[in-house]
Amino acid sequence: MVTHNRRQLLHECLQAVLGQTRRPNDVLVVDNASTDGTGEMLAREFPHVEVLALPDNQGGAGGFHEGMRRGLERGSGWLWVMDDDTIPEPAALERLLTAPERLDGLPEPVLLASRIVWTDGRIHPLNPPGLLLRDMDLMVRASVQGLLPLRWSTFPSTLIKREALERYGLPLKHFWIWSDDIEFTARVLRDEVGYVVCDSIAHHKTATAYPPWEGGDRFYYAVRNGIYILRGNALRREEKPQHVFTVLRQTVRYLRLNRLSPHSLRIVLRATRDGLTGPGS
User: Fold this and answer.
1) Considering the entire predicted model, what is its pTM?
2) What sign for the dihedral angle of Cα 48, 54, 57, 59?
3) Distances from the Cα of 107 to the Cαs of 134, 158, 188, 192, 229, in angstroms?
């Protein structure tokens, strides 16, 4: 799990992870240079948990990149990833791990995701799964087993097979925040299979559940990273027009919300420039 200055939520997350009906073999916390006493809390209350303390804050993308790289080095067969504000229910991991037992002829997955809910119990507005709607036969067959085929997913409570990382690489550090998980999982699932495991549930305890266009200056990353995804190979050619439409629609909502202020226009223009000229995906 990746953390930055959320000591109390991390404590709750770790208690939930260590209290699973099927406990993980090892637990790794990637500390993105926290300054709130996170390191001291971990050493005092979770001495058997491995901590990868990064020298500076590398964003969520950098944290997941380094954490998964460490998991590969340790020889892990499956990596269960999440944010520090993700609280999995006690059977969440067990149900992810046993999901392949109910495939009944369905394709083998390289990625399995929990159902992510917010504090009010509904599907978290920031973590709706991207379902594989183009294959309705697979969707119907899988749904009978309590599984939903994925096209992409977000990181809270996602189980990733080692072979997927070896074939398709790690999350991209330069995304920093936002959409790094969508780019990574879309890249993996372009030619592979993944499922939402509907009875594996995790609570994503974000303080709010605002859409990207309500994110203030951080909307820069939504536009820049959206363009990075468009330039990369995570999406099929026929999927890219819909992606363009999504980025444009979010941008219009952001500009309208901010009444076309000069500052909001500068955010969008800078993000567009950087998305077109930066390293992409």
Assistant:
1) 0.94
2) negative
3) 16, 18, 15, 9, 26
